[in-house]
């Protein structure tokens, strides 16, 4: 059997005949025409969330839920909390394993980590978001920046646990005393939830807070900062100083240090603003 395709004029007559009998035609695609049509693929950046000291990846749960509902792929990375160099190397491995552009978000000490991890990855990391976080310059430490301004009461509530490191040297992990955790870290979080956070807090190596940064990616990558004005861990003056120095697009909120838990919607909105600039 021989099949003859209609000529353009016959095809037009056929379509007119269909319309004449009252049927609607929304689209007609002939074989081969689909391949010639333009294709538009909108790829959203992956949001990588890095928690800080005395927290874990679950501190991002409310933010993750909102970002995923908005259609973003999300990774809440586990931060080893051993030191900026090793923690940044760990995070770089996570970032380099992801296809496509990335927005890095760091809370507290996690800001120190993303600043170092993203250095030299400008083709991959398109935006940095600091949430009640450190934005250190090269040669600065988290502890040094905290002590540069008044307002932190963290040193008064720290409990230190000494241990032997794999190389045989002695080291210390630091925690926030559980009965002081709510007021110090998460004053605007319900008491029951704060108790769970206190029990499950991840310690940070004391040496990590004194280790100096070797990279400051905010110098080359667009940055956003959420400053928490009721913060008892990182003084608000320190947050403002670092955000201003980095020329970060800055928002202030009356919140505790645990802002990702108490105000996940506010955090999500800033992350979405940063992600919206990625093309």
Automatic annotation (TrEMBL):
<dbReference type="InterPro" id="IPR000073">
    <property type="entry name" value="AB_hydrolase_1"/>
</dbReference>
<protein>
    <submittedName>
        <fullName>Alpha/beta fold hydrolase</fullName>
    </submittedName>
</protein>
<dbReference type="GO" id="GO:0016787">
    <property type="term" value="F:hydrolase activity"/>
</dbReference>
<feature type="signal peptide">
    <location>
        <begin position="1"/>
        <end position="27"/>
    </location>
</feature>
<dbReference type="InterPro" id="IPR029058">
    <property type="entry name" value="AB_hydrolase_fold"/>
</dbReference>
<dbReference type="Pfam" id="PF12697">
    <property type="entry name" value="Abhydrolase_6"/>
</dbReference>
<feature type="domain" description="AB hydrolase-1">
    <location>
        <begin position="47"/>
        <end position="267"/>
    </location>
</feature>
<dbReference type="InterPro" id="IPR052897">
    <property type="entry name" value="Sec-Metab_Biosynth_Hydrolase"/>
</dbReference>
<keyword id="KW-0732">Signal</keyword>
<keyword id="KW-0378">Hydrolase</keyword>
């Amino acid at each position: 059997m021989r099949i003859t395709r209609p000529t353009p004029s016959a095809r037009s007559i056929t379509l007119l005949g269909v319309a004449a009998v009252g049927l609607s035609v929304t689209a007609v695609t002939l074989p081969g025409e689909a391949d010639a049509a333009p294709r538009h693929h909108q790829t959203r950046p992956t949001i990588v969330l890095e928690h800080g000291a005395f927290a874990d990846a679950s501190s991002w749960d409310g933010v993750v839920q909102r970002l995923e509902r908005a259609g973003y792929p999300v990774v809440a990375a586990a931060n080893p909390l051993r030191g900026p160099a090793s923690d940044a190397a760990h995070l770089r491995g996570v970032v380099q394993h992801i296809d496509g552009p990335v927005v890095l978000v760091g809370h507290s000490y996690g800001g120190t980590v993303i600043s170092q991890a993203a250095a030299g990855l400008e083709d991959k990391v398109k935006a940095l978001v600091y949430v009640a976080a450190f934005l250190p310059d090269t040669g600065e430490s988290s502890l040094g920046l905290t002590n540069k301004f008044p307002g932190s009461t963290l040193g008064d509530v720290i409990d230190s646990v000494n241990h032997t490191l794999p190389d045989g040297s002695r080291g210390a992990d630091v925690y926030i005393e559980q009965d002081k955790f709510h007021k110090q870290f998460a004053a605007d979080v319900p008491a029951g939830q704060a108790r769970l956070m206190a029990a499950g807090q991840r310690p940070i190596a004391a040496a990590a807070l004194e280790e100096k940064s070797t990279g400051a990616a905010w110098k080359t990558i667009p940055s956003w900062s959420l400053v928490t004005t009721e913060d008892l861990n990182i003084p608000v003056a320190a947050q403002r100083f670092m955000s201003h120095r980095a020329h970060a697009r800055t928002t202030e909120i009356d919140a505790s240090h645990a802002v990702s838990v108490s105000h996940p919607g506010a955090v999500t909105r800033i992350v979405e603003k940063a992600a919206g600039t990625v093309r």
